[in-house]
Every structure is written in structure tokens, then in C-alpha cells.
């Protein structure tokens, strides 16, 4: 892998959405269709040799798209190769790109490191930095942080049935300019946001990937859930966090249910 195409930290992340053109599909020969299905089964198999680190596909109800594919990995070419293979497959002429989003996984600048966490304990909770309680708490936090950061940078896609994706940016207008707020204020708002999100632990798993300078929005929000209702609930709840209520702009929302490649191809009657 050429080092120039490997992020300094984290993985490339590509969200792809396609519609099926039934007219074009009907025009394909039976053989092209069969070969196309076989080709896509391989392309969309996360365990295929040479597959990127993570890959999931899902069916999308509604007319915005028929299906989506999420790909994450170290090697940009391996990630991009999935997109190319979908379009270059014998079914490619019947698959119309509906939307795509390119981003990179990251650890947010608002996640306190162990040192900053220690300062919070000392200054806000009055814990004596010389005490054994302090050391125990900081050590436990550092261990938790290591696992959390690993999952944010090199995520294991959860094996949960539903997924929701939407791009978002922070406002930069008038008195709603996120980027003109001092760091402490942004940090405070994000910490409130984090606490409201944590109430969904075990029901929703979120991944924030960064796209400033890479795509049209600043972040991609990917939420996996054990039930579609939890997606509705979390997005609604978090709208009330000031960081979202006052400062967030959202693009289109894509919702889907996760399937294996062969289940997806069957479901779409390809
Ligand atoms: O990462 C952490 O757990 C620490 C706290 C935290 C940060 C720093 C956190 C927690 N988020 C952070 C950063 Mn989030 N998040 C969103 C959305 O729909 C909306 O209103 C906004 C879309 C959701 C649903 C969500 C969920 N978060 C961010 C950032 C980056 C900001 C930056 O770096 O400038 C964005 C754009 C963003 C947006 N967030 C959580 C959640 C949930 C569920 C949590 C709790 C995490 C947990 O329990 O592990």
C-alpha cells in the first residue's frame, strides 16, 4: 500500500448508495445478470481475500436509494476498488449511483485525554491529585479511553440490524458560528452532547467520521441500532442538545437494514 494513501491515523470510510434501474436490468442478458449477481456476491463479501478491513451492505426502503454499502479500511485503493467493482460488474449498467460520502475516522478533539480528565477531576470534582482515588480513576479512564479510541479509529462494524447515515456540518452564520466559540465553550457543549448520547448505550452505536476538505459536509454520522425506533429516538433526543439545536446542519438521512450480500441480492430481486 503506498504510504501516501494511508491516513496518518484512522481509516478511510466510504458510504455508497445505489438505485436499481429496472429498465436497464430487463435489458441485460440472462447470462450477464447471473454473472453480475455472482460478481457482486464476491465484491460485497467482507471475508473475500483482499477485502477492505470492514464492509457492510444494507437495503434502503424508499426511493432515495435501493441499497447502500459501507466500506472502511487502511488502503484507499482497496476501499475505492469496491466502488469500481460494483460499477464495472455485469450488473453495473443497471446500478445508478444515488449518493456517496467519503470521510476518515477520527477521535474528536473534545474527547479529554487522561491528563485533561485528571484536571477535570481535580478542578470540578475536587478530587485530590495526591489521593489513591484520583490515581485509580485516572488509570481506569485511560484504559477505557484506549479501547474507545481504538473503536473510533478502527471500528468493528456492529452486527446490529439497522443503520442510519447522514452528513452534518456545524453552523457558521451570524450568532450561530460554532467556529467562533472559544474551545472551552465548544468542549462544554460537546460534553453535554456526549452525556445525552450515552443514554443510548447498548441500543445505538455511533461512528462520527470527518470529511472537512474531503466531501461537502464536515462529518458523516453513522448510527447502528437494534431497532429502527431507537434511531428515531436518538436523533430526536439529540436535537435538543444545544450543539445540535443551535449549531448543527444536516443533509439527507439514509436508513437501511443490514443484509449479507446474497440476502441483499435476493431482496432486490437482482
Ligand atoms: O466520543 C465520545 O463518546 C465522547 C463524547 C462525544 C463526542 C466528542 C460524543 C458522544 N460525540 C462526540 C462528537 Mn456525538 N453524535 C453526533 C450525532 O443528530 C445529531 O444531533 C448529531 C449527530 C449523533 C446522533 C451523535 C451521537 N458527535 C461528535 C461530533 C464531532 C464534533 C467535533 O469533533 O467537532 C459530531 C459531529 C457528533 C455528532 N455522540 C456521542 C453520539 C452518542 C450516542 C454519543 C455517546 C457515545 C457513547 O456512549 O459512547
Automatic annotation (TrEMBL):
Keywords for this protein: Heme, Iron, Metal-binding
UniProt keyword annotation of Iron present: yes
Superkingdom assignment: Bacteria
GO function term, MF aspect, one: metal ion binding
InterPro entries noted in UniProt: ChdC/CLD, Dimeric_a/b-barrel
Pfam families: Chlor_dismutase
Identification of the protein by name: Heme peroxidase
Amino acid at each position: 500500500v503506498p504510504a501516501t494513501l494511508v491516513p496518518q491515523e484512522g481509516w478511510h470510510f466510504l458510504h455508497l448508495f445505489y438505485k436499481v434501474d429496472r429498465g436497464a436490468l430487463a435489458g441485460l442478458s440472462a447470462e450477464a445478470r447471473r454473472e453480475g449477481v455472482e460478481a457482486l456476491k464476491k465484491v460485497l463479501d467482507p471475508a473475500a481475500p483482499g477485502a477492505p478491513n470492514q464492509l457492510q451492505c444494507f437495503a434502503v426502503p424508499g426511493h432515495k436509494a435501493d441499497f447502500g454499502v459501507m466500506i472502511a479500511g487502511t488502503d484507499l485503493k482497496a476501499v475505492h476498488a469496491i466502488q469500481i467493482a460494483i460499477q464495472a460488474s455485469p450488473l453495473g449498467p443497471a446500478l445508478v449511483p444515488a449518493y456517496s460520502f467519503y470521510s476518515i475516522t477520527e477521535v474528536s478533539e473534545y474527547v479529554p485525554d487522561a491528563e485533561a480528565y485528571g484536571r477535570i477531576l481535580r478542578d470540578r470534582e475536587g478530587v485530590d491529585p495526591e489521593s489513591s482515588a484520583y490515581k485509580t480513576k485516572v488509570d481506569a479512564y485511560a484504559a477505557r479511553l484506549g479501547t474507545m479510541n481504538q473503536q473510533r479509529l478502527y471500528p468493528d462494524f456492529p452486527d446490529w440490524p439497522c443503520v442510519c447515515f447522514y452528513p452534518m456540518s456545524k453552523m457558521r452564520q451570524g450568532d450561530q458560528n460554532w467556529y467562533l466559540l472559544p474551545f472551552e465553550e465548544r468542549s462544554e457543549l460537546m460534553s453535554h452532547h456526549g452525556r445525552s448520547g450515552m443514554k443510548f448505550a447498548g441500543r445505538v452505536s455511533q461512528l462520527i467520521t470527518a470529511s472537512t476538505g474531503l466531501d461537502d459536509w464536515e462529518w458523516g454520522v453513522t448510527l447502528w441500532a437494534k431497532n429502527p425506533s431507537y434511531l428515531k429516538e436518538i436523533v430526536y433526543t439529540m436535537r435538543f442538545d444545544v450543539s445540535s439545536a443551535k449549531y448543527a446542519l444536516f443533509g439527507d438521512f439514509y436508513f437501511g437494514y443490514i443484509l449479507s450480500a446474497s440476502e441483499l441480492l435476493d431482496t432486490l430481486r437482482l
